Amino acid sequence: DAKTTQPNSMESNEEEPVHLPCNHSTISGTDYIHWYRQLPSQGPEYVIHGLTSNVNNRMASLAIAEDRKSSTLILHRATLRDAAVYYCIPLGSNYKLTFGKGTLLTVNP
Amino acid sequence: NAGVTQTPKFQVLKTGQSMTLQCAQDMNHEYMSWYRQDPGMGLRLIHYSVGAGITDQGEVPNGYNVSRSTTEDFPLRLLSAAPSQTSVYFCASSYRCFFGSSYNEQFFGPGTRLTVL
Fold it and tell me: Percent of chain A beyond pLDDT 90?
């Protein structure tokens, strides 16, 4: 399984953009990069995923480096509800998610 | 759709007792899995199933049994509870087709908080 490196914690102000980085230098060529987040006292929820191209959905954008060794999750306007632990997970065809410790995002009002 | 449901929400056991954590989904998902989350840690995979009648071990399977007799249900059995099994347990499910598509999003239940004394 590919190893990932994420900052332990980050802080943002409400209404400002947030860029959450992830290094996955050992990722396999066929692994998709998935992001999940876990709000306090809840189960994880899917945020976004991609393979090579940048991706957008209603929750966030995902920017993937050309060499695929890193990616950045972008929350365009952070809200208090976005305070959570964010996990970057390379996912292969075995569908097994391997969670690291993730990044704890604090959003200040 | 109710999504992924787990029961009970909370449970306290004594060392050596056995119990079953229930997980059900109504989305006709083929893939189901169980994770445990210890304080300050990420989730670790216990067991998973790619369809009815098929199960396999994850990262931390010792002390747990699973079976998958229907598509909807995936119970997790603790055979003889130990304090080291004190944790929050999450069940998840997803479609298992078209790898890489948005259909592979995994849906997680609300969790069962288990304490073993």
Answer: 80
Task: With beta carbons under 8 A apart, name residues in chain B contacting A101.
Answer: 40-42
Residues B69, B66: Cα–Cα separation, whole Å? 10
- Distance, CA of B8 to CA of B109 (rounded, Å): 11
Taking Cα atoms as reference points, which of A26, A48, A2 lies closest to residue B104?
A48
One pLDDT digit (tens) per residue for chain B, 117 residues: 789 999 999 999 999 999 999 999 999 999 999 999 998 888 999 999 999 999 999 999 999 999 999 999 999 999 999 999 999 999 999 987 666 666 678 999 999 999 999
CA distances from A8 to A28, A49, A100, A103, A109 (A): 24, 21, 10, 5, 21
What is the three-class DSSP state of B112?
Answer: strand
The verdict on A102 touching B (C-beta cutoff 8 Å) is yes
Peptide bond just before A17 cis, omega within 30 deg: no
Answer yes or no: do A46 and B107 touch at CB < 8 A: yes
Question: Token digits for A19?
Answer: 């860029």
Q: Identify the sign of the CA torsion B25, B108, B86, B76.
A: positive
Provide the 10 A C-beta neighbour count for residue B47. Answer: 23
What is the DSSP secondary structure assignment for residue B16, as one 8-state letter? T
CA-based radius of gyration for chain A: 13
User: Over the stretch A23-40, which tens digit does the pLDDT of each residue have?
Assistant: 998 888 888 999 999 999
In angstroms, how far is CA A77 from the centroid of its own chain?
15
